């Protein structure tokens, strides 16, 4: 999840929480007859949140229903955007490669990921590999997830990953460094029978 999305989440959750606390506090204060100020929207336990006049005030106006529908539609669109943003990963679309002539070139992020996955999966003891490029175009980061066979050594898999797959990626793109987070999991297997 990107830093911007985390900040948006915190701000939204903070605002929603603040509105709920203030609204709930106002209703509780009026409900328990705690001597609320005169400007307070509810004056006591017998007061209703919305009177019949308030509920029907704008119903006959021609602009009321289009505005209500537009506002509710906007709220639904914003909620859907927020929901989709939670599952979207900040994958890198392309990596800038310094060609030495001042022009530079770009390598598609998916292409580089698939080559790194093929290199990592070609290792002995690796059942499956997944690679994701994140970060900036000039300074990418890599997340690698390897599924190891039961006989594989994680130490050997890590050494081969950094010595071959990551070194090939650094060499082909001309990057001085390629920070990587590697995660290993074992492939599920049935217990072998000893006879």
Describe the structure.
By secondary structure, this protein is an alpha+beta fold. It has two domains: 3-87, no CATH class; 94-186, Cation efflux protein, cytoplasmic domain (Alpha-Beta Plaits), CATH 3.30.70.1350. The chain has five helices and five strands; from the N terminus they run αααββαββαβ. It has helices at residues 3-31, 52-56, 64-87, 109-121, 154-173, and strands at 94-97, 105-108, 126-135, 140-148, 180-186. The strands form two sheets. The protein has a three-stranded mixed β-sheet. Strand 1 (94-97) and strand 2 (105-108) form a beta hairpin. The mean pLDDT is 82.
Contiguous helical run count? 5
Strand order of the largest sheet: 3-4-5
Mean pLDDT: 82
Q: State the assembly state of the protein chains.
A: single chain
Structure summarized in a few sentences:
With 195 residues, this protein is an alpha+beta fold. Helices cover 47% and strands 17% of the residues.
Tags for this model:
195 residues; alpha+beta; Alpha-Beta Plaits; 2 domains; three-stranded mixed β-sheet; two-stranded antiparallel ribbon; 5 helices; 5 strands
Q: How are the secondary structure elements laid out?
A:
Layout: H1 3-31, H2 52-56, H3 64-87, E1 94-97, E2 105-108, H4 109-121, E3 126-135, E4 140-148, H5 154-173, E5 180-186
Parallel strand pairs: 4-5
Antiparallel strand pairs: 1-2, 3-4
Helix pairs in contact: 4-5
